[in-house]
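Annex B. Sample input.
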Amino acid sequence: MVKSKSILGPWSKPVQITNFGSDPSLFIDDDGEHYMLFAAGIPTGNGTKIVKLNQECTKMVEEPHWLETEGKKAAPEGPHMLKKDGYYYFVMAASSGLFNGHHMLIARSKSVYGPFENSPNNPYLTQRDPNAVNFHQGHGKIINTQNGEWWTMVISQRRIPGEIKGKKTGISQLGRETSLERIAWGDDGWPIANGGKGPLDANIRPILPWTPVTNPTSDEFNDKQLGIQWMFRRNPVFEDFSLTEKKGNLRIYSGNADIDSIRGRNLIVQREKWLSYSATTKLTFNPKTKEQAGLTCYYDTKTYIRLGLQRGETGGLQLQLEECRYGKKSLVNIVNDITQIPIYLKVKVIKLRREFYYSYDDKNWLDAGVIADAAFLSDQGTPNWGFMGTTTGIFCFNRGTGKRIPADFDFFRIVAED
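Annex B, continued. Sample output.
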């Protein structure tokens, strides 16, 4: 594998298996042969393909085959395969819509290529309880623990009370999350979830050692690479990011375009994993005019909040709190006469309420504005296709001036409240 190095650290260049499809899943048969399943129908229709790979999983050794269930192509997304008691079980997701219709199907065959027969219990996993905590279960994979327990690891969505444009839809602030649903195998060899009750709000965890894994959230920017928690919204211009030009800081240059454009790349974010938390950063930035750097709560180009430092019309430094709600931008608050640089910026999230502050000493905090109901910053609030959840992070854009000015972020610290 070809190795590269950047602000992200060493990474392996991906190997292209095919130029068509999504949601790849590896399956290794009892004889050691390797296969890959992938959703091959999107965007024109349903359908999963399976292809045999070499032992290194670097190339195809035969052409892909369509998988059919009772003579029909199925599974537009999330295909998986497992083998049990001589049967190949073909697990399918997203078979009837992304949200309320989301559910799981399963079929089986004596051959890895099929044809497959559908389970009489289909959908074997779906949420029908309108009062449930977890919704939209899909993209699941059946697993067997070392203690013989069977589970479906599945994505789902939690809601908190809230309204979008007057509709009490419930709000998914965190986007898709991962949950486990217990599986039992019936005498007929088909899986049943939770004794036929479907997805549960709570379950008895697997009989396994308690080994919680917590990814980092805060980052002091003291290392040579960014922490694993960070994401670029688009493929970055690496020359606009540096952890070495000013030691102990992440330097982001004011890139072209802006936060509301798909061409705007100078933004790094991480997933919100808490309904209530605070995020703080320390910023050193000397804009010439409307170039802006700061703190953001970000969903997509049409759904975000940002607190940015820039120069006002009179030339003085100011903070601008801006929201983009349902694709419409509005200026929520302006704090003029910012007197000191560096400056500390903070957002405090209390479920759907978001409070913004600034400070000169990281101790005494001053009000920068409040958005009392940020329900729009959610899966249900974006006018785009929403299921990813809200993020938080930092940015630096020149906003059309063409100037390349460095913004130095000394740290980004998150304190979870729940």
